[in-house]
Amino acid sequence: MFFHRQVLQYKATPEKPDAVYARKLQEVIGGQYGEITVAMQYSFQAWNAHMPGKYRDLLFATAAEEFGHVEMLATMVAQLLEKAPVGITEDAIQKDPTVAAIIGGTDVQEAIAAGAGARPVDSNGNPWNAGYVTASGNLLADFTSNVNAEMQGRIQVARLYHMTDDPGVRDLLSFLLARDTMHQNQWLAAARELQEEGNESVPVPSNFPIKKEHREVSYQAINFSNGAAMGQGSWASGPTPDGLGEFTYIDTPPEGVPMPPPTHPDARFYGT
Amino acid sequence: MFFHRQVLQYKATPEKPDAVYARKLQEVIGGQYGEITVAMQYSFQAWNAHMPGKYRDLLFATAAEEFGHVEMLATMVAQLLEKAPVGITEDAIQKDPTVAAIIGGTDVQEAIAAGAGARPVDSNGNPWNAGYVTASGNLLADFTSNVNAEMQGRIQVARLYHMTDDPGVRDLLSFLLARDTMHQNQWLAAARELQEEGNESVPVPSNFPIKKEHREVSYQAINFSNGAAMGQGSWASGPTPDGLGEFTYIDTPPEGVPMPPPTHPDARFYGT
Amino acid sequence: MFFHRQVLQYKATPEKPDAVYARKLQEVIGGQYGEITVAMQYSFQAWNAHMPGKYRDLLFATAAEEFGHVEMLATMVAQLLEKAPVGITEDAIQKDPTVAAIIGGTDVQEAIAAGAGARPVDSNGNPWNAGYVTASGNLLADFTSNVNAEMQGRIQVARLYHMTDDPGVRDLLSFLLARDTMHQNQWLAAARELQEEGNESVPVPSNFPIKKEHREVSYQAINFSNGAAMGQGSWASGPTPDGLGEFTYIDTPPEGVPMPPPTHPDARFYGT
Amino acid sequence: MFFHRQVLQYKATPEKPDAVYARKLQEVIGGQYGEITVAMQYSFQAWNAHMPGKYRDLLFATAAEEFGHVEMLATMVAQLLEKAPVGITEDAIQKDPTVAAIIGGTDVQEAIAAGAGARPVDSNGNPWNAGYVTASGNLLADFTSNVNAEMQGRIQVARLYHMTDDPGVRDLLSFLLARDTMHQNQWLAAARELQEEGNESVPVPSNFPIKKEHREVSYQAINFSNGAAMGQGSWASGPTPDGLGEFTYIDTPPEGVPMPPPTHPDARFYGT
Amino acid sequence: MFFHRQVLQYKATPEKPDAVYARKLQEVIGGQYGEITVAMQYSFQAWNAHMPGKYRDLLFATAAEEFGHVEMLATMVAQLLEKAPVGITEDAIQKDPTVAAIIGGTDVQEAIAAGAGARPVDSNGNPWNAGYVTASGNLLADFTSNVNAEMQGRIQVARLYHMTDDPGVRDLLSFLLARDTMHQNQWLAAARELQEEGNESVPVPSNFPIKKEHREVSYQAINFSNGAAMGQGSWASGPTPDGLGEFTYIDTPPEGVPMPPPTHPDARFYGT
Amino acid sequence: MFFHRQVLQYKATPEKPDAVYARKLQEVIGGQYGEITVAMQYSFQAWNAHMPGKYRDLLFATAAEEFGHVEMLATMVAQLLEKAPVGITEDAIQKDPTVAAIIGGTDVQEAIAAGAGARPVDSNGNPWNAGYVTASGNLLADFTSNVNAEMQGRIQVARLYHMTDDPGVRDLLSFLLARDTMHQNQWLAAARELQEEGNESVPVPSNFPIKKEHREVSYQAINFSNGAAMGQGSWASGPTPDGLGEFTYIDTPPEGVPMPPPTHPDARFYGT
Ligand SMILES: [Ca+2]
Ligand SMILES: [Ca+2]
Ligand SMILES: [Ca+2]
Ligand SMILES: [Ca+2]
Ligand SMILES: [Ca+2]
Ligand SMILES: [Ca+2]
Question: Which of E227, E263, E271 sits opposite B138 (nearest CB)?
Fold first, then answer.
């Protein structure tokens, strides 16, 4: 069960309205790596978890916090839009270049569809969709996905930080950046702990009988391009991170095998 | 520039057709973590890379290989569909339960739209879309995304391995599993190397001035649920993976701050 | 069968071109509540209707009118775009702030893809999709959906009215506003008539055996947030609109029941 | 802020697994009218609300409950999938027709992507997307949208009730049906109260200066089809629900006005 | 303006219900090349047309017919679903393999969401979307798109013809096949006439100053693969269809030019 | 197999950055008719081809070239974005109208999500999706689709040519225009050759037994609108392009047939 309390985790009030910035902030609400994504992702990972206890508890705890992040950002967006002009006259444009900037820079659906409100979309107006969510039932893979999500999210917030001078907005972003720092660290710690406790290891899934894979190509760095430096990385020689082999470097891909002949399905498929 | 050679990296021929399995295999062609995703993701990461040299070379090399994986799987799907029946009579269903199974188990668009061919869609027929792609310009974040993609992909191939008995299909999957093993290891090695060389570190992005974030909440594990075990993980106490702090555990979230008052936009937005 | 006549229901000619406004108008062509949505929604409701006669006749009649509304708006958009500049020089921007405004404010695909024409997309360029359509086979539910669609649509047109000074555009919007007024009234009348004639009633679907639902929670207003005023509404006490009960107010949600233990699927799913 | 408690609002345990039914249940998790939609819709309506007090409190309260409904259904789905077979042999199909049924009837991504877990998608595997959400800033319109959502949702749950014999599943559905009954009643009550208190009225938005619309067509039932019964409804004569007019019936649409001439954009758009 | 008449262009009644086939028929209603696509495509081409007269008249005429095709197919689908079972018992499956077939073969949303009705989706349940529509303002390009659409559509209907034995369904398909034959011929004739009248020619757009393109590569068949037969086609030597050149064959692609150095955007984008 | 070489087919360097134009160029990378579409389309056509030899060789050859076109454009976009400002101050806007133009004219996700890099999306930020791809297994239909794709693509590039003055950008576009010229010619030649060799003919699919279609309507130009000029085209009289009939013109559509009665599905679908 989820409960709501009419407070915010942190203050979310801009110093002044800025409809152009409101659009940009949509990215971290409803974008690929916005707060809706992590809230939904951690929720589904928790619901699909197979081990009770600390990992699942962590997922539930963080999921609920992320819904609160959506709320802070939506609240911020509504305030940034509060003084958004409905219509803009030709005169106003001629007199003030800022007005010209506003015309193209705002999310017109925030005005037309939401009446100066936040929306579950990204900064280009694409509706959030569940194709962004990862919840495989394998926690090492999913925690790695979570580390990535928090990295991407923190990068985006850091970029957004420099796109405004508003102290109120920056203050909220500073809070979110700190929480992203925590969440990066937390998922890294959880992924490490999972492995130390022997729940899972690289290559994921570790309990697939590894002999069934073609081991002769499991550690080959094959250069399908012609970059001369490809062989200089730690992925081209030396022990592999999974501790099970040694990297080798193949500068020219093997010949390959002949393609099978083209198929000939039933004539009533009317192929040529 | 890309060049094509009319061979396959590995043999991709089923022992016999299986239209039901053809549908399942679509997941690793055109699904969220299918081969199209990694091919496109590594390509865009390479095109957006800022450092010449080994990392970019690795991206280009792997991207090109992944397009070849799409090809092997598409070739396999076409063969699995080769004997797919066009129509199925009531009689056939009554006589053979396998026919009944085929009816619902196949991707009907592989028949109706592609004429018994592969399609750039997932196993539920959702068209592949670029919302699956991550290419942020920050390599540590992106390599982490790549590790995740190869983990998720390998899990899916491992599951698919058990959904068929066909030796030809399994042989191809064994090859792909091995390459996923390589790619997991390779991105892990590359992410480690990036950090060792001082290009980037956790929290990503590391060069955002960390003092600007609210450091007092950067390492707090806050329990927004009521799982009793949340405080038992390595994310709740001890040093943080980024080496910059100590985790603390907050069993009950702080009070929060009052919500700002609701907004009052221009009356011509016709809100209530 | 549908027939087309090369006239418009109402005059749709702007006084002068305005490529920025053309983009905004796309919302009511191809947006969630644009004319394509209602045209398609009423059509599918008619095709799926189970009662011949007045309700279905009304659906067919209104559906056909709505396709004509798409046409008026598309015609308007093409004219608003007629003088849209192909390219814009740096000089032009420096000399005239309006030109700067145009750059970001227009739908670039109206230019690049449609050659200064209307498109079946919304004001952010999202293609119209059938996920907007509701046609359940239950007319009371669907007429309620229609009332909502006409309310949302009229709100959007009203907002758009204030975003232009062009008398020609406003004249068309005034016509569309009036038809939205009609359609709001019409679906309200039809929903009322359906109930008066005993075809359906609240709670929809009324012929589901109501004893099979957990009646003890059918009229409880449960406060899953902490808003103090929640209990002050007519939904918290007094008779219910369906005439079958009395509202009660539950300020603190019941304890809930324990979660079932996590699942343990087959090991070959490679969960953790 | 949102908080999570590791209990369910109601018991959600099936008597036995049923992977085919698990797929169907996805509709009310991640479909157009599933629980994710209402949870997100009520949340955004609350965040965009302009009046503090009872209406907003109701939105917050109900939003949080709906997230708990997603959770109950996801929990149920995971259990229905718990014994889902990974692979199915030809032998098994030949021996048991139920096995044949399972092959096509299950959501293959629940297996391949989620490892026998719930997903934020509908029963055809379409990812949930925010194009389903309505939050206009106008509460009468939005409450009408909510009434519709609860009607559509209850219809779908009622249909699903008959698609299973499992007492555990039916028990949960009985609970959800009751809550849908409550929510239909609650939004109807709230919509009525909004009007009684003078916050808004039909036609929505009521404070758009009604004289600016073309009043001569505001109450005309125009028959753009040829259904003979169209004129028999209460929408064709008598007073209008908004109390502002009288319906009239127009059996044959007016002539219309000439289309404006086709446009001639700049030659560099390369039209014909 | 569009008008509807409550008749069908052709009889659309199946001999008996077939819920499995109803799903397949959705492809030509709401698929990429279904009737909704052509109806919308021809409508937008007409609205964006720049020449009055026969071409635009043809577009309007055909668009309206296509909406009627959607109607015939939707009507057919509803009838195919009329006896669709709501629930299916384990007993029924064990007794009749056809029941097993039905379970997986039907579109479950036709039942759950539409109550045994047609939907604006394809045979995999993907909602129709306007990304399928082409309307560029250039009629030669668009008529070519139309020829393709009618070819693809006719292929799909031909395939569907063999997926049923129902004489009523086949009769309707026979009608649609004939109309597709007409429409293929019609757009071919129109494309030819456009060129004969000098409105447009290959390469489209013909009035782009051809000297501005790099003419040295305008007729080179470059082999980026290694297929030995590539040079044997009429595209590798001889006069070009546009009448402006001679094809040449390049067996090995030119060397190419060096890539520009990677970019170095502002440090505050936090790239690596 | 695909191989990559770190060169470009043609020089792709702008004279100076232009973040506004970078957004526009996204259309031909990730739009409906962008380079990703043709690369993927030709690939899937090749993988689904049934005839070995020249046609398939041509498909493979062109597919690989198109992936290289994606690369040139992505490289160009990254350079156009290289100097894109992160944040823009109010002062800067007031001083320079160009800055105002930039605000709305850029793709904000190129900054926030990609860190000043190219993305697999169109010029309105819609992610590329596989619903754009056509690969039916019938080469005449598919080559016609390819002709259309190259026409639409060349039109878009021609429009884009006039939207910039940058010599470097124009130079690249001149190269792409030439290749589009080639590809239009090539697919036209291939379509002609397919027919001359007797592989396929109009109406596609030609081997569907034509007697099974309702031949009485196969060549009727039926006017479902009221355009007076519809009968003046070559589609209204004279021999048909397929050589199998004569066009006739029907000014008024036939009466049609009665609609079947509405359906009455099982009561447990809760229709009305
Ligand atoms: Ca967060
Ligand atoms: Ca791979
Ligand atoms: Ca309308
Ligand atoms: Ca609910
Ligand atoms: Ca048709
Ligand atoms: Ca190209």
Answer: E271
Is ipTM beyond 0.90? yes
Number of domains in chain D: 2
For the cut 90, the answer to whether the pLDDT of residue D99 exceeds it is: no
- Touching F (3+ Cβ pairs <8 A), the chains are A, B, C, D, E
Q: Is F126 on the interface with C (CB under 8 A)?
A: yes
Q: Nearest chain B Cα to A142, which residue? A: B148
DSSP code, position E127: B
| Interface contact D226, partner E, CB < 8 A | yes
Residues sharing a CB contact under 8 Å with residue D142, sequence separation 6 or more, in sequence order: D45, D134, D135, D136
B6 in a structural domain: no
Does residue E165 share a domain with residue E55? yes
F189 to chain A, minimum CA–CA distance in Å?
A: 16
Whether A115 has a pLDDT exceeding 80, the answer reads yes
CB within 8 Å: B123 and D115: no
pLDDT reported for residue C72: 98
Distance from the alpha carbon of residue B38 to the mean position of ligand 2, in angstroms: 7
Give the span between the Cα atoms of C106 and C112, in whole angstroms. Answer: 11
| C86 & C164 share domain | yes
- Ligand 1 geometric centre to CA of A216 (Å): 42
Boundary of a domain, candidates B196, B228, B261: B196
Give yes or no: residues F238 and F117 share one domain.
no
Domain that holds residue F57: 19-196
Ligand 3 centroid–CA D135 distance in Å is 20
pLDDT tens digits, residue range C11-31? 999 999 999 999 999 999 999
Tell me the mean pLDDT per 10 residues along chain B, length 272. Answer: 98 96 98 98 98 97 98 98 84 82 88 97 98 98 98 98 96 98 98 98 97 98 98 98 98 96 95 95
Cis peptide before C209 (omega within 30 of 0): no
**How far apart are alpha carbons C102 and E129 in whole angstroms?**
28
Interface of B with A in 137-156 (CB under 8 A): 138, 140-141, 144-145, 147-148, 151-152, 154-155
Judge if A189 and A214 occupy the same domain.
no
Q: Report whether B86 contacts B116 (CB < 8 A).
A: no
* Inter-chain residue contact C272 with A112, CB threshold 8 Å: no
Residue F117, in any domain of the structure = yes
CA dist C213 and C235 (Å) reads 19
Find, in chain B, the residue whose alpha carbon is nearest to that of E108. Answer: B104
Q: How far is D228 from chain F (nearest CA, A)?
A: 14
Output the CA–CA distances (angstroms, integers) from residue C144 to B272, C133, D151, F92, F270, in the order listed: 20, 13, 9, 50, 16
State how far residue F105 is from chain E, nearest Cα, in angstroms: 18
Residue C245 covered by a domain: yes
DSSP labels, A20-66? HHHHHHHHHHHSTTSHHHHHHHHHHHHHT--S-SHHHHHHHHHHHHH
Is position F50 within any domain? yes
Are the CB atoms for E253 and F4 separated by under 8 Å? Answer: no
pLDDT band at E86 (very low <50, low <70, confident <90, very high): confident
Q: A1: nearest CA in chain C? A: C256
Closest CA to A189 of B240, B203, B195, B141: B240
Is A43 near chain B, with CB under 8 Å? no
Instruction: Please indicate if any CB of chain C lies within 8 Å of the CB of A212.
Output: no
Is there a single domain that holds both residue A116 and residue A222?
Answer: no
- Residue-wise burial string across D138-175, b where 16 or more C-beta atoms lie within 10 A, e elsewhere: bbbbbbbbbbbbbbbbbbbbbbbbbbbebebbbbbbbb
In this prediction, residue E191 carries a pLDDT of 98
Looking at per-residue pLDDT, the higher value among C123 and E84 belongs to C123
Is the Cβ of B264 closer than 8 Å to some Cβ of chain C? no
User: Do F145 and F237 fall into the same domain?
Assistant: no
Neighbours of F90 (CB within 10 A): 12
